Amino acid sequence: MSNLTGFVKRLRDIMRNDAGINGDAQRIEQIAWMLFLKVYDAKEQDWEFEDEEYQSIIPEKCRWRNWAHDDKSGAALTGEKLLNFVNNTLFPVLKGNDTKDADGKTLTPGIKVDSTTPISKAIVQTTFADANQYMKDGVLLRQVLNVIDELDLSDYEESHAFGEIYETILKELQSAGSAGEFYTPRAVTDFMAQVVKPQIGETMADFACGTGGFIISWLNQLQKRIKSTADADKYSNSIYGIEKKQFPYMLCITNLLLHGLDVPRVYHDNSLTRDVLDYTEDDQFDVVLMNPPYGGSEKADVKNHFPDDLASSETADLFMSVIMYRLKRNGRAAVILPDGFLFGTDNAKVNIKKKLLREFNLHTIIRLPSSVFSPYTSITTNILFFDNTHPTEETWFYRLDMPEGYKHFSKTKPMKLEHFQPVLDWWHDRQGIAEDGFDKAKRFTAQQLTEELGYNLDQCGYPHEEEEILAPMDLIHRYEEQRASLNAEIDRVLSKITSSLGGNAE
């Protein structure tokens, strides 16, 4: 396809005319399942070339090449016939259901998956388990299919270029309603992967992997270290991901297939529904890179999978416990968490921080500008770097300020990897930094953090806040965070005063 840069725009322009598509979120979801089948068909061509006995899990009539491809002979499905096939044959079959005639006779068997089904085949049913087909105009659907089918994924250059274009689709999630929660800016995932320094033979996990950004950044860093066929095999088997929601799971699988991973070990599941005390060394990983969902809620019984002292109602807190139980001895982690975790004083948060500092080496916290995740959220976040080597002795805090010429990040002016350069320059030559009387970088001992600050990790924050016009819910979240931070500081001071007077602080 000659005009890759106009790919998304062409699809959007066609789909705007379809009455079944309501907004960007549905438009991108519609594009996603078609892209998955196109990419999967290209992969199957490779697998067929490598193995003459390869058999697809998809029935012949449902394979992309046999219903979506238009050979310009005039025989391609379109209009009502195309809609009928997609709605009443393709989707039921890929979801695992047989299609039957009026007499109950099976017309096309649904794909069947069990514990013996290879991951490369099982992902088809898992991907379509909760997928949706929104389009109502079969002629417009044919036009969309034709644009996607123009992609020549057998050509290395075009396939690689499309892998980059796919990133633009993922970026559009940021402005497609709540779907933006599954996309972490590539600059952030690349920075975190670069700092943890992937090594051949290590395994990396993301227990809420969204569209797979951390996995791709990990693979990009690890690929530079491949020196042999054995290294390449270890590279292909180095990742593990779990994603609870169907749509980002589909995007993630497609993303990994596009990046050459034939067997993407990513599962459609919920990381919080297994007892953390049941994890063994076999369930642990050398590296964890992730941005846990925060501000969300789980069913009440989810807390039953955690020890009572760690059973928080905040999803980010629960994921922190999962990470600590699933990080190998000598393993390392880089995790994005909201400010609320740093200064939170409820029992579960404090206990999680106690466990983190007493059993792990929390060596660095990077404070990020509030607009890094704009426009999805303006909640201020942080990157916690820790390893499972020894208890924390000291923790460095570093505040990453907005780059010169930027008032805030936005969709048109997103954060770039180069904006992390000040952190990288400081990382290997750590020194305290104060600007305008406020700490920008500072070292705290574990004793200071625990005894003097009462597990308040809200240090080296942003002293000067620019006035912003926020969406109502973001404004509420901002006020809630400020109130919680103030309450935490008041509690700390009162505790110190009470202790000095010989009393017992609650």
Give a brief description:
The chain is of the alpha/beta class and 506 residues long.
Characterize the structure shown:
The chain has 506 residues and is α/β, with parallel strands linked by helices. It folds into 3 domains: 4-154, Ferritin; 157-183 and 204-269, no CATH class; 270-459, Vaccinia Virus protein VP39 (Rossmann fold). The chain has helices spanning 7-15, 24-50, 64-67, 79-94, 119-128, 138-149, 156-172, 186-196, 213-223, 229-236, 246-258, 315-325, 339-343, 347-359, 421-427, 446-452, 472-500; strands at 99-100, 106-108, 204-206, 239-243, 266-268, 285-290, 327-338, 361-367, 381-387, 394-399, 433-435, 438-445. The strands form 2 sheets. Strands 5-4-3-6-7-9-8-10-12-11 form a 10-stranded mixed β-sheet, sandwiched between helices. The protein has a two-stranded antiparallel ribbon with strand order 1-2. The protein is elongated. The termini are far apart. The relative contact order is 0.08.
In terms of topology, how is this protein built?
Layout: H1 7-15, H2 24-50, H3 64-67, H4 79-94, E1 99-100, E2 106-108, H5 119-128, H6 138-149, H7 156-172, H8 186-196, E3 204-206, H9 213-223, H10 229-236, E4 239-243, H11 246-258, E5 266-268, E6 285-290, H12 315-325, E7 327-338, H13 339-343, H14 347-359, E8 361-367, E9 381-387, E10 394-399, H15 421-427, E11 433-435, E12 438-445, H16 446-452, H17 472-500
Parallel strand pairs: 3-4, 3-6, 4-5, 6-7, 8-10
Antiparallel strand pairs: 1-2, 7-9, 8-9, 10-12, 11-12
Helix pairs in contact: 1-6, 2-6, 2-11, 4-6, 5-11, 8-9, 12-14
